[in-house]
């Protein structure tokens, strides 16, 4: 069947994984449609940085090809300096932390003799920590795809037809018939809920966080590197922040760096447990929590841009790995719709598995010239291997950083489609 005669591949969501998959389909001349609930790509700010592993970079390069990947690579930040290290928040001094032991930019963990703990090697190409803001990543991946996207179309389910599938939207209307539907609409994916019959679960760990930003000049006291700043002095539990400081931008006050704060359950308490609050309320809580931190760290909070502060609830996928479900020949899921470990990925584990999903499924569809029977089962079998490994790493970090233990039989899971914030 010619490409022009084929029904399109339908994609729910216009996030990172969905857009990268769409690029793979476009390069293979496979028809597609993307349905996104937001009104435009700028509707929601997505400024926090994602760390890219070798596996993630390889997946992106395989999809984009050499020229487009070079453009993507050029906008990524490459951080050297101290690599990944920990700091005692109260004293401002280096901290002996198994999570970051042996992760200097010029060292490999197996060469340091440091005790092993739950951790992830953050450096990738060139021995640098490579990162990019999620919003910038989306801008790179959307290039050339604009006319494939239907904005303000929230997918809430799907229906199978005699020879395809249709997406169902929040207003009750339905999409054109497609050869296949791919749920890439993130944590609250209704497609994931339906296709897995509820087996794909997300747990609210009880841990909480705040994201903040400040001018790069506020980070001079740290120097270049990726830093985990830990405070174990709080009576309610541990607090830490992670931040990435790139030397090339440190003297420009017009550029902002971000930091992400995480805390054990009960430490961060917004008014009325309302995590939709952003701005000054979140900023003031962050400042209160860090008021006794070392002077070299204070500018991160005293100079923070209050309007950019935001709370976040910390979630985790099923700790035992990606579950199995009865494969639907025409429907599958990618990215955060499969695993979403907002808490423990150090800005990277979930993103790197997401782009691997896109590259894998995109390659299988390109090789077949579009949808074919058995393609979802083949993709899901291969995906479960690396995705389950990623979940295990993330959950190990959860127990180290937050002391969290999830009993899959008794811990309540979050209902897909019901937003936390």
UniProtKB/TrEMBL annotation:
InterPro entries: FAD-bd, FAD/NAD-bd_sf. The keyword Oxidoreductase applies. The keyword Flavoprotein applies. Residues 95-124 are annotated as: Disordered. Its cofactor is FAD. Keywords: FAD, Flavoprotein, Monooxygenase, Oxidoreductase. One of its GO terms (molecular function) is FAD binding. Residues 149-391 form the FAD-binding domain. Pathway: Secondary metabolite biosynthesis. Residues 105-119 have a biased composition (Basic and acidic residues). This is FAD-binding domain-containing protein. It comes from Xylaria bambusicola.
């Amino acid at each position: 069947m010619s490409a022009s005669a084929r029904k399109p591949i339908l994609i729910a969501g216009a996030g990172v994984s969905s857009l990268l998959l769409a690029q793979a389909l476009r390069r293979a001349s496979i028809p597609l449609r993307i349905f996104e609930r937001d009104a435009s790509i700028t509707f929601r700010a997505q400024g926090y940085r994602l760390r890219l592993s070798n596996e993630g970079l390889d997946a992106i390069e395989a999809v984009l090809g050499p020229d487009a990947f070079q453009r993507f690579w050029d906008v990524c930040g490459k951080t050297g300096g101290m690599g990944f290290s920990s700091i005692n928040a109260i004293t401002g001094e280096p901290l002996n932390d198994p999570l970051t032991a042996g992760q200097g930019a010029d060292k490999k963990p197996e060469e340091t003799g440091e005790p092993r703990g739950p951790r992830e090697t953050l450096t990738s190409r060139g021995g640098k920590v490579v990162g990019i803001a999620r919003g910038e990543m989306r801008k790179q991946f959307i290039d050339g795809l604009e006319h494939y996207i239907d904005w303000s179309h929230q997918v809430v389910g799907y229906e199978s037809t005699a020879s395809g599938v249709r997406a169902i939207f929040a207003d009750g209307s339905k999409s054109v018939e497609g050869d296949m539907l791919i749920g890439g609409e993130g944590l609250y994916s209704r497609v994931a809920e339906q296709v897995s019959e509820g087996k794909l679960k997300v747990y609210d760990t009880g841990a909480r966080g705040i994201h903040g930003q400040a001018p790069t000049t506020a980070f001079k006291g740290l120097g270049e590197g990726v830093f985990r700043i830990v405070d174990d002095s709080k009576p309610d539990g541990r607090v830490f922040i992670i931040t990435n400081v790139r030397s090339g931008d440190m003297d420009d006050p017009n550029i902002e760096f971000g930091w992400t704060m995480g805390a054990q359950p009960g430490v961060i308490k917004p008014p009325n447990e309302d995590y939709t609050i952003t701005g000054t309320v979140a900023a003031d809580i962050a400042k209160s929590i860090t008021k006794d931190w070392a002077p070299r760290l204070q500018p991160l909070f005293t100079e923070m841009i209050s309007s950019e502060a935001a709370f976040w609830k910390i979630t985790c996928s099923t700790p035992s790995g990606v579950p199995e479900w009865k494969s639907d020949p025409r429907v599958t899921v990618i990215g955060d719709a499969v695993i979403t470990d907002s808490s423990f990925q150090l800005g990277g584990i979930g993103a790197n598995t997401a782009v691997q999903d896109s590259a894998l499924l995109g390659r299988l569809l390109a090789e077949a010239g579009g949808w074919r029977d058995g393609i979802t089962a083949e993709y899901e079998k291969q995906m479960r291997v690396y995705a389950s490994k990623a979940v295990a790493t993330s959950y190990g970090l959860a127990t180290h950083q937050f002391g969290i233990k999830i009993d899959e039989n008794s811990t309540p899971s979050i209902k897909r489609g019901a937003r936390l914030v």
